[in-house]
Amino acid sequence: MQMPPLDPAILARRSEIVAALRAIVPGEGVIDDLEGMRPYECDALSAYRQMPLVVVLPETVAQVSTILSYCQDNKVKVVPRGAGTSLSGGSMPVGDAILLGLGKFNRVLEIDYANRCARVQPGVTNLGISKAVEHEGFYYAPDPSSQIACSIGGNVAENSGGVHCLKYGLTTNNLLGIELVLMTGEVVRLGGKHLDSEGYDLLGVMTGSEGLLGVVTEVTVRLLRKPTTARAVLLGFPTEAGAADCVAAVIASGIIPGGMEMMDKEAVKCAEAYVGAGYPLDAEGLLIVELDGPPVEVDYLVERVAEIARGRGATTVRVSNDEQERVLFWAGRKAAFPAVGQITPDYMCLDGSVPRGRLVEVLAEMREMSKKHRLRVVNVFHAGDGNLHPLILFDANDADELHRAEEFGADILRLCVRVGGVLTGEHGVGIEKRDLMGVQFTEIDLDQQMRLKCAFDPDHLLNPGKVFPQLRRCAELGRVVVHHNKMPFPDIPRF
Amino acid sequence: MQTHFTLAQLADPETARSNDILRKCVHCGFCTATCPTFVLLGDERDSPRGRIYLIKSMIEDDRAPTAKEVRHVDRCLSCLSCMTTCPSGVNYMHLVDHGRHHIEETFTRTLPDRFMRGVLAYLMPRPAAFRWAMVLGRLAKPLAPLLPATSSDPGGATFLRRLRAMLEAVPDKVPTPSPVDRPQVFPALGVQRKRVALMPGCGQQVLAPEVNEATVRLLTRLDIEVVNVAGSGCCGSSVLHVGRNDQAIELAKRNITAWLREIDGAGLDAIVINASGCGTTVKDYGHMLADDPVWAEKAKQVASLAKDVTEIVAEVGLSGIVPRPLTVAYHSACSMQHGQKLDALPKKLLREAGFMVKDVPEGHLCCGWAGTYQVLQPDLSRRLRDRKVANIESVRPDVIAAGNFGCIGNIASGTGIPIAHTVELLDWATGGPKPAALI
Amino acid sequence: MTTSTIKPRSPEELRQAVEWALNDGTTLDVRGQGSKIAFGKPMACDQVLDLSGLSGVVDYAPEELVVTLRAGTPISEVEALLAQRNQMLAFEPPDLGPLLGQEAGQGTLVGAVMGNLAGPRRLSAGAARDHLLGFSGVNGRGESFKSGGKVMKNVTGYDLSKLLAGSWGTLAVLDQVSVKVLPAPDQTRTLLLLGLDDAAAVRAMCAALGSPHDISGAAHLPGKTALRIEGVAPSVEARLKALRELLIDLDAGMEELGTLESRAFWREVRDVAPLKVASGSVVWKISCPPTEGPAIVARIKALRPSAEAFYDWSGGLIWLALPPSADADHTIVRGAIGAKGGHATLIRASEAVRAAVPVFQPQPAALAALAVRVKESFDPKRLFNPGRMG
Ligand SMILES: Cc1cc2nc3c(=O)[nH]c(=O)nc-3n(C[C@H](O)[C@H](O)[C@@H](O)COP(=O)(O)OP(=O)(O)OC[C@H]3O[C@@H](n4cnc5c(N)ncnc54)[C@H](O)[C@@H]3O)c2cc1C
Ligand SMILES: Cc1cc2nc3c(=O)[nH]c(=O)nc-3n(C[C@H](O)[C@H](O)[C@H](O)COP(=O)(O)OP(=O)(O)OC[C@H]3O[C@@H](n4cnc5c(N)ncnc54)[C@H](O)[C@@H]3O)c2cc1C
Ligand code: SF4
Ligand code: SF4
Which chain C residues contact residue A356 at CB under 8 A? Predict the structure, then answer.
């Protein structure tokens, strides 16, 4: 992975920068010894690693603001980091950049049940929010599989989704406001407890901006009341196409399930061996469909889904009869990644998104690629919204396999774009998909995005080397070429 | 995750095992969120994933760790919450034992640190010496307030701060030794259904002799013959957690010898342990001695017989229940829920015995006791205790129950709500005396 | 001031038009259907850019829940198409024509998206911003670009769709959009609570929304508080019953509206019909934390007793009509919002008033400066709707 060349001038000033940070953050909050920085050298995409210039762990918004304005004045780069669970290398350090960790911002600040929202610090975990309100029957809807550990700040930066996003939306649909520190050190608030913004929807832009635009220091999320009941249906199909058809048919019939997940045969086998969820081992495609709401509605919809599935040739139709069984149905899906981890030293998790109607064709083509690259691939994914998670199995201690896995991954993502999909549905571009951005976007598209970046961070100091394949200076991007009166009025109807 | 051990390094069985453990870790970070020290400090170095990295680096490079690396490994409570959370089955317990061992062998601690650890490692496994130390400690206890209550280190790991913590940990009254803690046989009250050895333990018999007494009453009432086997004693966990593997292994061998003699003699259905910290260690004897051809099999045999007292009670079933309508907040000791994966069982028994049992919020977090930890990292320990107490008090219980005497003493020091060992409550509900804490 | 109208017939013609405007230094008044409704800062543009020539549905796959259309497609056409397949635009774009002194039933979908409009279902389904999946268009440099896509989940690059939604055409001119659609509910029913005052009504609405009964509309009109429940028949029945039980302690009279009545009722709420507006009165739209709504209205009424108001979004959206005044009472209205957060937008007022008063809520300096930089990153020469949001 090619990262931008390190700036020798910054490296030369390292001790001065460390001293400046120590003046801002006392105690153990500045880490500059090699051994101490090592645990920070990567996020959950551990195939890519780089040591930071120095790690700083501020505790207050004022400290974050002072650090950023110092960095702006001294042109020092900054990589924000939440819980370090990114799968795209989003929080991977950069050698001439400060790694700004938000782990100490872990307090729930306010819970407002009447207005159904919670105000929390960015380091609070996704699950931590739901835990804080569960005794009142509420929860925070987006539920990435990493919810036990990932931070809400990281969720905002990646616009994370999960199994239940099909019905309840992604992070961006469940946010009410944030507090944000700009690279200048200015602290601004976007949104609050009210809906919609008074000007440009910068809250919307910040969500999914992968730490390139500002550092989030507070988040206000929408809370939802837990549905009265939820039941899961396990549907096994003799072909993957049957399963994929069923997904389309359920949605076309007007049902939006709480979640609709698919696993291929290999994934079913691994999950079954790992947790014993009772999955049918003969199925080529397995669907888990969850329906939630009042009991009468759930019963009614369960029956309709089962009927649709039978019509599409399902060989297994099992409905959970109690909460324990529902949890068991999900246990296999939830443990699918580690389960696959049992049959391979390493795996690479991809995240393309495709139109639902193209699922079958994409899966078939992926198998062909698997032969070509001589690596196995296992599929576990959010079928309801067409978000694939192919897992490529390889051994990181074998350089050639790592290389082939990367090639294979890139081929899969190109395929996703070719069928009208996108490179990433929820894990973000980071460094992992950075060099493929050109597959989905033209240079003009990317320039426009980078200009927006310039509006927030004119010196490209925040999270450098991520998302954009090549960075152009803002001055260059900002130039407007005007050919005064050189172009005749075009031949367009005019009144 | 990727590792870089040489073949020569991998020839060492301990290193080879650690390599396997490291290769299983996918660096997902799930474990960080449920680690008590990460929850308090928010620094990756104070998290399991960070410590795995620190340990990997020191054993991979085969070098002495830096003082800072040691500081972060030292802050680990060995609560094993990370192992419960890890979806990939990474055995952090064995890795951190290797890390501590490596630190002990390659790193020179400061003199006061060595002194403190030496004293603890000497006293903890020796009940008689430990008792005398408590008696002496009582005389010195009034001096505690003269020592600093905070320190420059967030863990409180400075000499004077630790000294204060040590004095504060001394109970105001040291109970007289209990007659049950001498080698002997307690016959079943009715027709004998099982025969078990009771692990006598070390610290517990000095500080809380009533636990063994209640255990003997409860088990014999349930028609189990209980033997206190001569020669058995401390399980070795307290010294293991400060990196003294050799001393721990000696203690393990002593226990194994004693119990095997009994197994080969009158026979044993189980070795019953009522301090869950010890239970975790005895159940792991097989691993501890795996590389010793003479002891490996014997250790495995003993480990397979080790049971928490609640497991054996569940096997025979409770009977003769006199329900006590109290609300119990059950504190699941780390060694119980994470070490032995026994979380639901003790609660089930308490419910069967007629108590209203409530779960404690953030139940997965350690109470901060963790053996010698409360002395070595007093500030972190105190913060965890206060957090635990606040969580317990939020469910408004009449009484708190736990299956580990260390947690009991630690939690009791922070709240006015009575606290008793699970067996004391079960004993009471089946005809035994009311636990002292409730009187 | 506007001199003439230019009406491109293809995306390329649109691009050429903008490029020409850039070179010529001509500002553009971007219009969907050209329904020239008085909103925003009055603008003095050299040229009208009329997008009604770029009309029609490009692609509609009901099972994908996505419709892709040209930017000038009338909203009525889209809604009719979706209705055939029992689907809908879940954000319920309002038709504010009548409120703004125009005919009903006009306007383009992109026009509604550009205003980030949303009706009562904003509460449960989100606003236009939550439904715009992707677009293509022309920026102020005369360059065609795209963002987003046609799939539900997408985090590839910045989410420019959110930014464009609600930008009132000041950042780029769109030629095509992909919008998420949802199945239309089988049934729509309404529980009416009678006789509650504002504070009690908002408490009741918040309690209902805090229940598991999946409320998709909560509005309080004078004397009448309405809660909407939608879905399949058995579910609607059960939830209505549960909701009545939940609210029994209020001692309010209760009535129910059936599906047809409900649809008509909520359409009126959507289009702000319940607001009593005399000719000449100014209309404000206030967004606030739901529980703050009644206090804000009370503060305004203390100073302007003849103010008329009703609440949508469980109290979080206030539609307010005030008697005519030179400054639209903007200091009173914005002063009433207080520290708990929120914002007020002047929706209807004479051109002179709109020229004199900030139509959009003024922002703190750092944020306002950022907004200017964002505008310049798309439209450096300020060709599009100059001053509309300023
Ligand atoms: C000027 C105006 C203000 C309004 N204010 C409100 C309000 O505050 N609250 C409310 O609820 N309803 C408001 N409405 C009503 C609502 O916007 C209409 O019902 C909607 O459907 C507009 O469609 P249109 O095509 O007639 O509007 P238009 O006037 O054509 O468009 C509305 C806005 O969108 C922009 N726009 C339109 N098409 C494009 C395009 N292809 N690319 C870029 N920009 C485009 C325009 O520049 C304008 O800023 C307003 C309508 C208008 C016209
Ligand atoms: C096993 C596993 C399963 C996963 N499953 C899912 C899933 O189902 N759905 C899903 O969407 N994701 C999933 N993820 C990916 C990951 O958990 C999410 O992307 C998550 O949101 C990252 O949060 P974090 O706190 O770990 O952020 P980090 O990894 O620390 O950072 C991620 C990005 O956010 C930026 N960032 C972090 N905090 C801030 C802040 N406060 N201000 C500004 N920028 C910030 C960083 O710079 C970086 O670019 C999974 C990851 C793992 C390891
Ligand atoms: S054992 Fe406990 S303290 Fe140690 S790393 Fe694991 S969770 Fe953290
Ligand atoms: S949870 Fe397990 S696999 Fe994940 S980082 Fe922790 S130890 Fe490694």
Answer: 63-64
Residue B274 lies in a domain: yes
Nearest-angstrom CA–CA distance, B339 and A218: 36
A69-74 LR contacts (CB < 8 Å, sep 24+)? A69/A184, A69/A185, A70/A20, A70/A21, A70/A24, A70/A185, A71/A98, A71/A183, A71/A461, A72/A183, A72/A184, A72/A185, A72/A459, A72/A461, A74/A13, A74/A17, A74/A20
Minimal-distance CA residue of chain B relative to A342: B88
Q: How far apart are alpha carbons B166 and B174 in whole angstroms?
A: 15
Which 3 state secondary structure label does DSSP give C316? coil
Whether residue A292 contacts residue A227, with contact meaning beta carbons closer than 8 Å, is answered with yes
Interface test with A, best of C28, C88, C135, C158 (most A CBs within 10 A): C158
From the first residue on, what is the mean pLDDT of each consecutive set of 10 residues in chain B (439 residues)?
A: 92 95 94 97 98 97 96 96 95 95 95 93 89 91 92 91 92 89 95 95 88 97 96 90 89 96 95 95 95 95 97 96 94 96 96 95 94 93 97 96 94 96 97 94
Q: pLDDT digits over A378-427, tens only?
A: 999 999 999 999 999 998 888 899 999 999 999 999 999 999 999 999 99
Measured between alpha carbons, how far is A476 from A252 in angstroms, rounded to an integer? Answer: 48
Sign of the CA dihedral running A366, A371, A377, A379 = positive
The SS3 call for residue B201 is coil
**DSSP label at B110?**
-
DSSP-derived 3-state class of residue C318: strand
CA distance A404 to A374: 8
The nearest CA of chain C is from the CA of A482 a distance in Å of 5
So what CATH class is A346-428?
Answer: alpha beta
Domain ranges, residue B161: 111-169
Task: Give the C-alpha distances (Å, rounded to integers) separating A331 from A342, B32, B82, B362.
Answer: 16, 21, 19, 22
- C120-151 per-residue burial string, b: 16 or more CB within 10 A, e: under 16: bbbbbbbbbbbbbbbbbbbbbbbbbbbbbbbb
Q: What is the CATH number of the domain that holds B348?
A: 3.40.50
Residue nearest atom 7 in ligand 3 by C-alpha distance? B35
| CB burial string A300-313: b at 16+ within 10 A, e below | bbbebbbebbeebe
The whole-angstrom separation of Cα A14 and Cα A32 is 9
Give the CATH number of domain A8-101: 3.30.43.10
pTM confidence score: 0.94
Please check whether residue B1 lies inside any domain of the structure.
no
Joined tokens for residue B259: 């119990």
CA of C274 to nearest chain A CA: how many angstroms apart? 21
Domain boundary among B269, B291, B313: B313
Decide: helix, strand or coil at residue A389.
coil
Region for B237 from its dihedrals, namely left if φ exceeds 0, alpha if ψ lies in -120 to 50, beta otherwise: alpha
Place of tokens 């610090």: A121
DSSP three-state, residue C108: strand
- Contact A301/A369 with Cβ under 8 angstroms? no
Any atom of ligand 2 within 6 Å of the Cβ of A123: no
Residues 6+ apart with CB under 8 A from A346: A47, A393, A394, A395, A396, B2, B26
What total number of domains does chain C contain?
A: 3
Q: What ipTM describes this predicted complex?
A: 0.95
Distinct helix (H) and strand (E) counts, chain A: 18, 18
- Do both C157 and C256 map to the same domain? no
- Pick from B106, B126, B149: which residue ends a domain? B106
Subunits close to B (at least 3 CB pairs below 8 A)? A
- Cα distance between residue C362 and residue A39, in whole Å: 45
Beta strands in A253-368 (DSSP E): 259-264, 285-293, 316-319, 346-349
Class for the domain spanning A108-225: alpha beta
Rg, chain C, Cα only: 21
Domain ends where: C270, C299, C321? C270
